[in-house]
Amino acid sequence: MEVYIDIYIFENVVINLFLLLLTFKLLRFSFNKKNICIAAVLGGLYGLVIFCNVNLLNSIAFKLLVPAIMIYISMEKRSFKVILKSIVVFFMLAFMLGGICFGALQMQNTYMIGQAFVVENNSIKYIVLSVAIVFIFINRIVDLLKEKIEIQNLCQRFGKSKTELIKEYRRESLEKEDLTFREWIKEKVQFIKLCDEAFMNPLLTMNEFIQFKSFNQYSGTINDWLKQKILCKKYKCCSEELLTKIVKYYSVNGLENELEDIIASDIREKVHKKG
Q: Are 132 and 15 in contact, with CB atoms under 8 Å apart?
């Protein structure tokens, strides 16, 4: 049987990228587009271990470790809970895909008990690869369209052109060297959503933050500061010190949805102590 290494690696990379994208889309976790491609290539190269007679690389522990590393590399906000969820879903999808492919192989090829299973027809492989490639391309096109719409909305809300937004990004990126234009756009979109939630004018809020930052030497982002303002307004009995700690920790670890539960719990505890 002839195996072309380049085609074999390409097929593995495509399937890995498909599984990673599907995992993060189902869980609605953010990921780095560049890193997810690197992770898929890493997984594709790991597929070459079947040609090596190295027990360690072929062990179950290593087969569990490599997908975990792929997921860790791909993610933007990393925490144990988020990575564990991603690993579980990734393996579930991989097993489902493997089961579908094996079931299709059995239907396409004759198998008798006591005889070797010979694969003569493997058209399911090309169907799966085609679906994976189409999914990857559609996902990329959708992301580009969403990004274009987000930039247009930002231009309208701030009354600026795309060129002016790019200039503003370059000024702000001097403080954050690793900040890409896409990440900056994402932050601004989140900022607009927070302003809408709090019924606040984005331009006035931004000016207020600039003044606050200069007087108080605040090192957090505008979104973290705005979340504190919203939560202070919503939960008047919460201290700003507590809110600062909570917002900082949970925004770093990507667990922003749990903010309100933590604060509500703190309020109940204070009320219980007073009672």
A: yes
Q: Contact at 8 Å (CB) between 202 and 195?
A: yes
Rounded to an integer, what distance in angstroms lies between the CA atom of residue 197 and that of residue 216? 25
Give the model confidence (pLDDT) of 41-82 as tens digits: 999 898 888 777 777 778 888 888 999 999 999 987 778 888
Summarize pLDDT for 170-194 with one digit per residue, the tens.
777 666 666 677 777 877 887 787 7
Q: What is the pTM of this model?
A: 0.59
Domain ranges of the chain: 5-121
DSSP string, the chain: ----HHHHHHHHHHHHHHHHHHHHHHHT--B-HHHHHHHHHHHHHHGGGGGS--TTTTSHHHHHHHHHHHHHHHBSS--HHHHHHHHHHHHHHHHHHHHHHHHHHHHHS---TTS-------HHHHHHHHHHHHHHHHHHHHHHHHHHHHHHHHHHHHT--HHHHHHHHHHHHTT-TT--HHHHHHHHHHHHHHHHHTT--HHHHHHHHHHHHHHHT--S-HHHHHHHHHHHHH-TTS-HHHHHHHHHHHHHTT-GGGHHHHHHHHHHHHHHHH-
